[in-house]
Amino acid sequence: MLFQKLMGKGPTSMISPSAPKGLWSWGSYQNGQLGLGDAVSRSSPVQVGASIAWASVSAAQSNVSHATKTDGTLWGWGGNSLGQLGLGDTTSRSSPVQVGTLATWSAVGAGESYRTFAIKTDSTLWAWGDNASNNYGTLGLGDIVNRSSPVQVGTLATWSLLGVASGAAFAVKIDRTLWGWGSNNNGRLGLGDVVFRSSPVQVGTLASWIKIEGGNNQSLGIHV
Q1: Containing domain of residue 195, as a range?
Q2: Nearest-CA neighbor of 207 among 163, 164, 173, 180?
Q3: Would you say 153 and 115 are in contact if contact means Cβ atoms under 8 Å apart?
Q4: What is the spatial distance between Cα 173 and Cα 125, in angstroms, rounded to a whole number?
């Protein structure tokens, strides 16, 4: 489990964007997903390193963790058996390691399986990790080939937010249209059928979506 320690000036104050933000973790150490550099489980929060510049976090059930810093860099640690850390290999890490050298990441999300998605500050969508299990094509890259480094999903620079599930993924564009791809068991993609998709497909015609979440076999969204 991961969380950001956000420090404001009082119980009712707004958190300043420049306020220090430390990263803390606790729970099982399996594959090093706590990011504490060891193989020890924790039953109380422990700070991950000394940095107080964390911006967002994502923890997946496949023992992998990612976080972005306020400088726009992306970091990963934990299990990496299918390249889900995005570090160009399949070696697990027990401490945060920077993903590439770019400082252009704004959001990261991982589901229950071995894959990760992220959005850059230019609104492009990127994916890496498991793309071959059950022939789902869950990375949205139009194939069923695993990736151990971030690969852009399509060519558009219009993505706004993510909703990652087990075997499926969703994203909302800047125009608030909703898109889904991957496993479509039980019609979980919302496309009116049960056909798997290996590339993003628009869900309906509405342009009013503001939130999307996926579960094991179901999906939930909010639109205005």
Answers
A1: 54-223
A2: 173
A3: no
A4: 10
